Amino acid sequence: MKQRVVQLAAAISLALVASAAMAKTNDADVTRATLDNGLRVVIVRDALAPVITTEMNYLAGSDEVPAAFPGTAHAVEHMMFRGSPGLSKDQLAAIAANMGGAFNADTTQGVTQYYFVAPSQDLDVALHVQSLRMRGVDMDEAAWAKERGAIEQEVSRDLSNPAYKFYEQLQAQLFEGTPYAHSALGTRASFEKTTAAMLKSFHDTWYAPNNAILVIAGDVDPAATLAKVKSEFGDIGRGTLPARPAFAFKPVQAKTITLPTDSPYGSVYLGYRMPGTQSKDYAAGLVLGSALASQRAALFGMGMDGTALFGTFGANLMPQAGFGMAVGIFPKGGNPQPVLAKMQSILAEAAAKGIDPALVKAAKRKAIAELEFKKNSVDGLANAWSQALAFQGLDSPDAMKQAIEAVTPAAVNALARATFDPAHAVTAILTPESSGKPVAGKGFGGAESFASSPDKPVTLPDWAAQAFAKLELPRSTLSPVSTTLSNGIKLIVQPESISDTVEVFGKIKTNQDLQAGKDDEGLAQLLDGMFPYGTASMNRLQLQQALDAISAHESAGSNFSLAVPSVHFAEGIALLADNELHPALLPQAFSVVQRQTARIVAGQLQSPAFLTQLGLGMALLPPNDPQLRYPTPKGVMRLTMFRVKHYYRQTFRPDMTTIVVVGKVDPAQAKQVVEQAFGAWKADGPKPDVDYAAVPANKPSQFNVPDTSASQDSVQMAQTIDVTRNDPARFALNIGNQVLGGGFYASRLYHDLRDTRGLVYTVGTRFDLDKHRSTYTVSFGADPDRVAAASAIVVQDLKQMQQTPVTDSELKRAKGILLRQIPLGESSFGAIGGQLLTLSVEDKPLDAMTIAGQHYLQLTAKDVQQAYAKHIRPDAFVTAVKGAAPKG
User: Which Pfam families match (predicted)?
Assistant: First the structure.
């Protein structure tokens, strides 16, 4: 379903402390227990929003699969969504959809994880579903035959990604002879030989309570929740677990991998084996990777001095081992060898001379601060505890913090010496290759017809039916304080006391297409690229050092942000304002950014992704529409520093700016701090119009953009619509959108394209509603010989929406999804900040989600039918296929 791989930078932030097999702790917000059958339970109370996350971690993944069947664990994960004794596939899909949140899973080497994110009121339902799926799962050959088609489409999708192909080869080289030599994804050939009986055997062997860890986070009563867990899981019998696979790592043999890529730029990787998450050297590895990835370090400096377009360090870590990678980006047509040589030199120096102690100190400080930031998301908090318990094997609330604090520069340097040996490096160079120009299509299957197969009404079990019987408007937990400063800045403050941190989200409304002069395309990209170079009073290293000193993350530009411990809020805002209002804009930096931007643009103009979006734009919009403007390499090189500064002064205005502050801060204090930092900023002249004008309806057409690196086609079916972001019709369209594409298997498109036919792995539908123009898009990935059938079903299902009202059960489920998404949209600082920022920028009331909920409750099936009949044109799609030409 969804494979979550632990990145090194993210691993630090995910290293929340945890403990298992303890009845009580001194922390009132954490409850732990181990049931008699061995199930370990951790309950973390987080009252940020009335939302819960449950994560069931089974300590089995691709490590435990039979020989020659690398995707067995992944296939079991898929089949877990096809029902269990006492809960049919359709009932499971309807229940998950009714809950309105996330319902998914991911398979890794040593852990398979199943999770719900839902309103707190649905905790009982989530636990009962997890319990039923632990007890057993329906796995018959007919169901596996259908799911095999979907999982093979997932394999095709990933194998269409050159970076994934490199990842597979890198693992094979670094971990030869061990279970880590293959990814958790699996292969089409092995799936063809896999039987349902094999999958059931894997489930029955490894999905036992004594091989699982259940993490629950959110707004819960811990004692009552633990009682529910005991009631649901306590009578499930222990399993007899087989021996775990052995890991006998061989010395890595140096190797160079070369691959083509459809990216607009090339990539150079230097990969090395590193300690795993359960190694004694794990904390030292985290600090080493974070120090190497610092914006003050030499790898990042490659992008700042022009040696490369960008540079950094990252990693993928499994329990027994992992790998770290230095990364360098070079332009299409450029020579990767100088970038590779620079990366080799940087890592050789790290091995020989060690890491700057100041970077080690900053990395440790930030890693510890990140533990506090994880409290700012219910979902992130649960995932952090799962990582700590299931992936890192921690057994103490302070284990990771203490381990990081104990890391010394000497330990980091010793690990660098042991790791960065060129004799054990795997080098990869991904070189951009053009695939060809778009080709007009003659139609992709529009003449085909299929019997209609909408979702049938599903009778829910009583325990689920009672939970979803009544639709109610949820109470919002937000009480933002909004004010407009004297210079026109809109300031919105949402106090939250869940952590000792503050997060800031900001946006300046600009539109290069409408505000840049003729032949000035690229000004916005050049300006954005210059903010990291520092301010008028601090160079980039001094600015980053000041941010490191207060454990802050900051980015400046037309979209800007800050995350900072609350005790340093004023200092963080001052640094953000200095970067935003007084960027250095130095000639030397301009020269580097201009060359880099021109090279990036040169690659983009030939990339399949850009050609696809350009083709869609040209088919949907009138000729010479401003939204069709794009920079060229020659045009970028003609731009001057004077034009960039003029564009900055013209477009960066306080009266076009919104700042949202979320966290442990008093609104009056926040206003005072923001006014002090941003108050001197003044606007000149009338406010500009930055919204595109309305456009006429598009005509239908098709085209194909070749992509030789992709084995699967990426399909977008798009059309302009006459519903804008303030049109009341949007509410009925949103309900219909949930019927078509919301709620996973319960939606019509998932049911018809994936569940019954196995034509696609995922399908998405979305409305992009602007002030004066809007689009509707359906997107999916499919093999070339399945594109025609999938496209025809999309059109068929849309016509059915227009001809027949949705069923009562579909209408209720769609309303339930949208209503339950209201509290889910308040379950993290990021979600809160993003929601308030968007509403303010679009001049909507800050309680617009509650207002929308009131509309949803009143709408009827007839309203939905009429909205789709009036505003959607099933036969007027522009269909863009990126990949091989569709067959049939």
Answer: Peptidase_M16, Peptidase_M16_C
